[in-house]
Amino acid sequence: MKRFAVAASVAAALMSTTAVSAANLEVTHWWTSAGEAAAVAEFARVFEEETGHTWVDGALAGSGTGANPVIISRIIGGNPMGATQMNTGRDAEELIQAGLMRDLTDIADEMGIRDFYVDESLLEPCTYEGRIYCFPVNIHSWDWLWLSTAAYEEIGEPVPTNWDEYVASWPALQDAGILPFGLATGWPISGVPGVLMAGIGGSDLVLAINRDKDVEAVRGEDFRRVAEALDALRSVVSPDMMVPAFGDVGNQLLEGTAAGNIHGDWLQGDLQIAGGVPGEDYECLPGLGLNDQLTGGGDSFYFPVLPDGTDPEVIEAQTELARLLISPDAQLAFNLVKGSMPIRTDIDLSSANACMQKAIPLLDNGLLPSGDFSLSSDTQQQLQDLSIEFIDNDNISVDDYIERYASIIESAD
Amino acid sequence: MTDASASERQESGTARYVRQLFTRNISAKIAATPMIVTVLVIFIGCTLWTIYYSFTNSRLLPTGTFVGLDQYTRLFGTSRWNVSVWNLIWYGVFSLSFTLVIGFLLAVLMDQKIRFESAFRTIMLYPFALSFIVTGLVWQWIMNPTLGLQGTMRNLGFDWFTFDWIARSDMVIYALLIAGLWQGTGFMMVLMLAGLRGVDEEIWKASRVDGIPTWRTYLFIVLPMMRGVLVTAVVLAGSGIVRLYDLVVALTRGGPGISSEVPAKYVYDYMFTAGNIGQGLAASTMMLLTVMIIIIPWAYLEFGGRGKKS
Q: Interface pTM (ipTM) of the complex?
C-alpha cells in the first residue's frame, strides 16, 4: 500500500509540473511466453498512445500456479496494483465478495457491453449481486488438437481430421520413432480431460458434470469413454519424454518429433513466433474435430480498489484502461497476436489466421462452461492432482479414475 | 512456634522471589522483552491461529465456520497427501542417516593431517553455498535422461548405460536424495570436523599409549565426546528435511505424476493455488505435529533431567 502510494504521489508531483496530466498504472499479468508477451505489448502500446498514461508492466512468472498467488496476496495484503489480469473464472470470487475489487458497472452500462459481448455467459464470473467487477478480454479454449504436418509427412499418411483418426495413427507414428503425443510436465495435462470430455463425451456431458455437478453422469457410459481415451493416451506418454514447458511441445510439433498435442489456443502464439504457419506447418482441430461447441475460458482484467489517498489521476487511468481493453482497436490488435478470440462480435476478423477462422463459426453455437468457470479453484486443483497421478501411475484403473472423479465432483462447490 | 516462624520465613521468601522476578537483572529482562513478545505473538500466536483455522472451512480468506475434523478427514483420504507423507519419511530416514554417516567419514578423512586441507574443505563446502533451487536445476539437467548423463554416455557408445531415476516413479525419491546429499553433506562434514578438532589431544595420546586402534578410538571414544555437535547436526539436518520444498519444485515439480510430492508442497499448493486455507492449514498442522512428536521426547531427555545431571 505504502509503495503504491509513494509511487502515485511521486507521479502526481511530477505531473503537476507538466501540462499533460498522466499517471503511472501498474498492470500485472502472467503473459510471459514469447507469444503472450508480444500480445500484451499491444495493449500497452494502444493504452499509452490513446491516453497518455504510462503502462508499468508487472509481468509475473509462473502462470496460474505461480503468479496468481502473488497477485492475490498483494491485493489481500493491502498493496494492490492498478490493474491485473486473471483467468476468467472463480479464482477472484472471494476477492470480489470481500469488496477488494472495483465496481465497473457504471463503465459497463455506459459502454453497453451486453450488446457486443459475444456470449453473456462470459460475464457471469464477473458478476456478483448484479454488479460487474471485471472485463473478460479474450476467449480462450482448451479444446484444440494440434497436429504436426511434418510428422505425418514422414509416415506418409494424411493429417487426421478428428480424434479417432489421430488415435488410429499412433502405431505408425511409434514405428517411425515419432512421439504420438507431446506433453510438458506439470499443469498442461490438467486441461486434457476436459477437452476429451467436450470432444468425445459431447456438450451434454460437459453441462451435466461442470454445470450441474451430476455424479451419475460421471459414472455413466459417456464419461467412461472419456476415461478410456485418457487411458489410451497414457499408454503413449512416458515421463522420460516429457519436456519442461508447453512452448517446447510447440517446437516438437514444428520439428515433427511429436505428432500431436492437446493444448489451449495460446499455444498458437508460440507456434507463430517460432515461424509456424497454420495449415502448412501445423494443423488444428477445434473440439477434437468431433464437437461443434467449444468450452470457453479466457482472461479478464480486474481493477483492485485502491487505498484512500491515491491520486485521482491513477483512478482515472484505471477507468480509461477498462474502457480501452474492450474497445475494438485494442481487441483486434491484442487477439490477433495472442491467438485467442476477441470478446466482441462487431470487429472484422478477416485478417485472422486459418485456425482462428475455424473457431469463429463455432462461437455462434454458444460456449460450454469450462472447468475454470464452474468449478472452484479447490476442485480444479483436486482434479488436476488426479489427472497427473492417473497419467503416470498405470496401477490406477479406469474404474478407480471414474470413482475418484465422481467423489471430487460430489464434494465440489 | 517453630512452625510459625518457618512459614513466616517461607512467606517472605515467596514475596522476595516475586519481587526479585521483576527487579533482579532488570536491564537484562527489558532487553529480552522484544524477543519474548515476538515468541508469544509470532511463534505461539500464529501457531494457535493456524491450528484454529485448520478446523474451519475457510477458502481464500480466513473467514470460515467451524467444521470439526472435516479437513483432516479429507486430508488423509487424499492420495497425494499420503504419498507426500511416505516420501518425506523415506527421504528423511535416508537423508538423515547418509548425511551424518558420510559427513562423519569425510571429517575423519579430513582429520588425517592431509595436505591442502583447506582447499578440500572449501570444495566440499561449496555446494552448500548454492540454494536448493540452483541445486535442483543443476541436477535436473544432469539426470535428464535424454540430455544429461545418460544421454551423454549413450552418445559416447555406452548403450547399456541407464540413469533415468528422475523419470521413474519408483526411483525418483532417490534422485532427490542424491541432489540433497550433494548439497548438504559438505556442511555436515565441516560441523563434524569442528567437533573432532574440539577433542583434546591428550585423549589421543592416552589411547595411543593404551594401544587402541585408531578406528576404535574414533568410534568409541571420540564420537561419544562429540555429543553436542551431533545433536546440532541432527537438529539442522532434521529441520532441513521437514521443510523440504524448493529442491522438489526445482528438480521434479512433484513428478513423475505425484511420486515425488512432499507435504510442504501440498500446503503451498492448497493454500495459494487452490485457495483453500482450511485444507492447507490442516496439512501444516500435521507437519507441526510430526515435528512435535520428534522434538518433545528429545527435549524431555535433553532438558528434563537437567537438575539431576548437573
A: 0.75
